[in-house]
Amino acid sequence: MANGSLTKKIIHGRPYYYLRFSRRVRGKPKVVRTVYLGKAEDILAAVEKRRRGPRPQRIVLAEFGAVAAIWSLLQQTGLIELIDRHVPKRSQGPSVGQYLALAVVNRVVCPKSKRKIGAWFAKTVLPRLTGVRSSHLTSQRFWDHMGRLSLPAIEAIETDLARTLVEEWNIDLNCLAFDATNFFTFIDTRNKKADLAQRGHSKQGRYDLRQVSLALLVSTDFHVPLFHETYPGNRPDAVEFRSALARLRDRQQVFAPTLPAGQDVTLVFDKGNNSTEGMELLEGTPFHFVGSLPPTQHPDLLAIPLEEFHRLRGSRLEQVSAYRTIREVYGATRTIVVTFNDNLYTAQWTTLTEQMAKCRRQLGALQRRLARSRDGRSQGKRATLAGTQNQVKAILKARHMKEVLDVPVFEKGGHVGLTYRVQQRGIEHLSSTLFGKTIVFTDQPGWSDEQIVLAYRGQYRVERAFRTMKDPHFVSFSPCFHWTDQKIRVHAFYCVLALAMVSLLQRQLHQRGIDISISEALQSLGDIKEVALFHSRSRKNPLVTLELTERDELQSQLFDALGLGRFALP
């Protein structure tokens, strides 16, 4: 019988290993076999491979990180149970709450149409986490269940969720931001089942399409939505604000028991919501307010010299000066704060100069085309006075361009021409009066200038919420392919619920010391996959092991902060 021993041989300064087998031949030890093993790392790799066992027959990847994070928040808020209390289960299979929750996860992670949501679902860990079969997630089954979500049911669910968020998640109610936007649809003009879809002032620039409008009330604490309303796309923001005030008053009554003694709720809104009627209605609510006024409508306030402004205190207001006064606005005496922001001034001046340069290039090109036509160096239709004026109008449509560029169009000798020059007086007027300034008004006379300005800045929270909902990758409202008012309202509702989940996610990460954008968080989480290793070809009883992909430093932080380990099988 041969005995084996491990030996090392140094070749060119590097160790190489051999296995030598020896036995006694005629009473003396003799090497009878030598096996080359390689370098140390080769031996280690071979050992690790042996430990791992046989190569799996099949490997399947499933979405884990982002899906588990949103599913965790749905569990923490109790949203499924809350929905099912208002809309009981109708038959076998998932409940209305489960269907809606899965739509929320999909909207956050990978927005799909309801025809494609089943295929997406099957490639995630949700079948394992929910026990729902992908065969249940057909478009027909989904909308059969969503048909039970009436407008009163949606309002009741939202009210209960808002109460939960305020009472159990301690959402700050000191200031709440209100604003509205619209989303274009592809609903045909001949469709008479979608009164919500109307042509109006498009904030996305799609005047060729019917649109649906959405109003939101969000916390200035990470823009968590507490109220929404879907309304016709042709209704002006100021009119919608008046319409929403009654429901906002009802919502405040839900919040009132949670407010500390003496604390008020202050609504923050932009100038697009202003009207005399709205201010009168606001007086009849328990809300205070901070809003803004159109600067161009108050030239006397813009004309106040900067020497009369004073610097505001606080790290967030280092570049801001303010002038405080009292004026009658919309039929009532209000506190007015005019601010001048150095950074805003610089940004507006930069935008103006860039836009001027662009317009001058376009006007120069048009001028040269007209000259070639006049000299007979171009073919085609001769330019007309009206047509050229329309082209100039289109070039000057950008903000302030008509004030800073003078472009006379003339006809001489049967030919059209134009000249253009910079209006220095217009530039000086913008620079000395308008740029860098914001006019804020409030019914909180006891607040300091700093409090008023910081409260108004909370308006960007709702603007950020709308930007999130217009992101094509996460929480995307568009495209909306639904053809009835009921389906549009359901679509808007689960988009708002999706926004609530990502807002809570960002808030939760902040509380754990991780301050990153929601898109960065979701992208990083989305790269954490679950790997299913199938060690047999049997379809009925396959031997399967589950593992997660390796995580980088940020992924590990997110994984631990959100407690996602509880969704991973050992």
Account of the protein in words:
The protein has 20 helices and 19 strands. The protein has helices spanning 40-52, 65-77, 79-86, 96-109, 117-122, 126-130, 139-146, 151-169, 237-255, 276-283, 299-302, 342-374, 385-395, 401-404, 424-434, 449-457, 459-469, 485-511, 518-526, 553-561, and strands spanning 3-11, 14-25, 28-38, 58-63, 175-184, 211-219, 225-232, 266-269, 288-293, 310-311, 320-329, 332-341, 405-406, 409-412, 415-418, 421-422, 437-442, 529-534, 544-548. The protein has a 9-stranded mixed β-sheet, sandwiched between helices. A 3-stranded antiparallel β-sheet has the order 1-2-3. The longest helix is centred in the middle third of the chain and has 33 residues, at 342-374. The chain is globular and about 120 Å long.
Topology:
Elements: E1 3-11, E2 14-25, E3 28-38, H1 40-52, E4 58-63, H2 65-77, H3 79-86, H4 96-109, H5 117-122, H6 126-130, H7 139-146, H8 151-169, E5 175-184, E6 211-219, E7 225-232, H9 237-255, E8 266-269, H10 276-283, E9 288-293, H11 299-302, E10 310-311, E11 320-329, E12 332-341, H12 342-374, H13 385-395, H14 401-404, E13 405-406, E14 409-412, E15 415-418, E16 421-422, H15 424-434, E17 437-442, H16 449-457, H17 459-469, H18 485-511, H19 518-526, E18 529-534, E19 544-548, H20 553-561
Parallel strand pairs: 5-8, 8-9
Antiparallel strand pairs: 1-2, 2-3, 4-18, 5-6, 6-7, 9-17, 10-11, 11-12, 12-17, 13-16, 14-15, 18-19
Helix pairs in contact: 2-4, 2-18, 2-19, 3-4, 3-8, 4-18, 9-10
